[in-house]
Amino acid sequence: MTPVHFSFSSAFMLGLMGLAFHRTHLLSALLCLEGMMLSLFIALALWALQFETTGFSAVPMLLLAFSACEASAGLALLVATARTHGTDRLQNLSLLQC
């Protein structure tokens, strides 16, 4: 495993562990998701550059577009949650409560 591959896989795993273990605020969960998407984007971009394929070069941009849509939907949910519940703590949110 090359050091570059190790750094991106460890960045992805750190984001995944942060998402799994530090679930107190919705904003921290969104930041962990963005870190995971950023590491995936950089890994896919470097993979496309390494193999020098022209057909695969659009995939990192597509992932970046989906990541931007995910971030905007997450921030919209964060604002809506903060307005209705008064906080972004995930312990106050429940699916049984509307």
UniProtKB/TrEMBL annotation:
<dbReference type="GO" id="GO:0016651">
    <property type="term" value="F:oxidoreductase activity, acting on NAD(P)H"/>
</dbReference>
<feature type="transmembrane region" description="Helical">
    <location>
        <begin position="61"/>
        <end position="80"/>
    </location>
</feature>
<keyword id="KW-0496">Mitochondrion</keyword>
<comment type="function">
    <text>Core subunit of the mitochondrial membrane respiratory chain NADH dehydrogenase (Complex I) which catalyzes electron transfer from NADH through the respiratory chain, using ubiquinone as an electron acceptor. Part of the enzyme membrane arm which is embedded in the lipid bilayer and involved in proton translocation.</text>
</comment>
<comment type="similarity">
    <text>Belongs to the complex I subunit 4L family.</text>
</comment>
<dbReference type="GO" id="GO:0008137">
    <property type="term" value="F:NADH dehydrogenase (ubiquinone) activity"/>
</dbReference>
<keyword id="KW-1133">Transmembrane helix</keyword>
<keyword id="KW-0999">Mitochondrion inner membrane</keyword>
<dbReference type="GO" id="GO:0005743">
    <property type="term" value="C:mitochondrial inner membrane"/>
</dbReference>
<dbReference type="GO" id="GO:0030964">
    <property type="term" value="C:NADH dehydrogenase complex"/>
</dbReference>
<keyword id="KW-0679">Respiratory chain</keyword>
<dbReference type="GO" id="GO:0098803">
    <property type="term" value="C:respiratory chain complex"/>
</dbReference>
<protein>
    <recommendedName>
        <fullName>NADH-ubiquinone oxidoreductase chain 4L</fullName>
        <ecNumber>7.1.1.2</ecNumber>
    </recommendedName>
</protein>
<dbReference type="GO" id="GO:0042773">
    <property type="term" value="P:ATP synthesis coupled electron transport"/>
</dbReference>
<keyword id="KW-0472">Membrane</keyword>
<dbReference type="InterPro" id="IPR001133">
    <property type="entry name" value="NADH_UbQ_OxRdtase_chain4L/K"/>
</dbReference>
<keyword id="KW-0520">NAD</keyword>
<feature type="transmembrane region" description="Helical">
    <location>
        <begin position="29"/>
        <end position="49"/>
    </location>
</feature>
<dbReference type="GO" id="GO:1902495">
    <property type="term" value="C:transmembrane transporter complex"/>
</dbReference>
<dbReference type="InterPro" id="IPR039428">
    <property type="entry name" value="NUOK/Mnh_C1-like"/>
</dbReference>
<keyword id="KW-0813">Transport</keyword>
<keyword id="KW-0812">Transmembrane</keyword>
<feature type="transmembrane region" description="Helical">
    <location>
        <begin position="6"/>
        <end position="22"/>
    </location>
</feature>
<dbReference type="Pfam" id="PF00420">
    <property type="entry name" value="Oxidored_q2"/>
</dbReference>
<keyword id="KW-0249">Electron transport</keyword>
<keyword id="KW-0830">Ubiquinone</keyword>
<keyword id="KW-1278">Translocase</keyword>
